[in-house]
Amino acid sequence: MRYAREKARLGQQEIADGIGVSKRTYIKYEQNESPTKKPMLKEVAVICAVSSQWLLTGSDEHKPTYPAFPKPSHPENKEGSNQLSERYVFVPLYDVQASAGSGAMVHSEQIVDYLAFLRDWLVNQLGLDAKKVMLIKVIGDSMEPTIKDKALLLVNREVDRPSSDAVYVIRQDGDLIVKRIQNLMDGRIEIRSDNSGYKPLIVPADTVKIMGKVVWYGQNI
């Protein structure tokens, strides 16, 4: 449990609050001073984004992975139904890859997982609508060193037009790409990469659809 918590960069108090016990009680669980039950381990696994089976057994066959959390229509995930939903937002991860390169066709747009984010950070600090965010993966190196290949992007779907020099997920000619975009005086937009090896592209604004603004990304160091 300690390993999973530290990998998720969470404190003991945060886990304790998430499963509805005191910090002292949680510490006893973590130090194997008190017996743990499967339902409680499942909650810890969801918070730490690991497999509950791996957390229970430590088997190599069940290495840490993103858990398949119930979809929004599932009764276990209704707003306010438990302490987890009050403290955490479960953001859908879509089976979509956006290219940080020259573009890639989108083959699937289905929800394959849910990842837990602290509600206070997502809603109060970032100012996002919990129902208007999604997660997708990125492929390619055109946004390096800012965003690396295979990074996980948190996208605000409320943003559908560029308003600043920020990073957006856009659709152009059937491709889904991640780029910086900027409005130009003549009504066109400039699509730019952070990697200097890629040249900027200037196109008519009506040929690009803004799918959302990238507000956070997670990646390996």
Beta-strand content:
25-35%
Q: Name the CATH class of the largest domain.
A: Mainly Beta
Number of domains: 2
**Number of separate strands:** 9
Named CATH architecture of the largest domain = Ribbon
Structure summarized in a few sentences:
With 221 residues, the chain is an alpha+beta fold. The protein is built from 7 helices and 9 strands. It folds into 2 domains: 2-62, Orthogonal Bundle (434 Repressor (Amino-terminal Domain)); 79-218, Ribbon (Umud Fragment, subunit A).
Descriptive report:
By secondary structure, the chain is an alpha+beta fold. It has helices at 2-7, 12-19, 23-30, 38-48, 52-57, 83-87, 119-125; strands at residues 88-99, 111-118, 133-139, 152-156, 166-172, 175-183, 188-192, 201-204, 208-218. The protein has a 9-stranded mixed beta sheet with strand order 2-1-3-4-9-5-6-7-8. The longest helix is centred in the N-terminal third of the chain and has 11 residues, at 38-48.
Helices and strands in order:
Blueprint: H1 2-7, H2 12-19, H3 23-30, H4 38-48, H5 52-57, H6 83-87, E1 88-99, E2 111-118, H7 119-125, E3 133-139, E4 152-156, E5 166-172, E6 175-183, E7 188-192, E8 201-204, E9 208-218
Parallel strand pairs: 1-3
Antiparallel strand pairs: 1-2, 3-4, 4-9, 5-6, 5-9, 6-7, 7-8
Question: Which features characterize this protein?
Answer:
221 residues, alpha+beta, 434 Repressor (Amino-terminal Domain), Umud Fragment, subunit A, 2 domains, nine-stranded mixed sheet, 9 strands
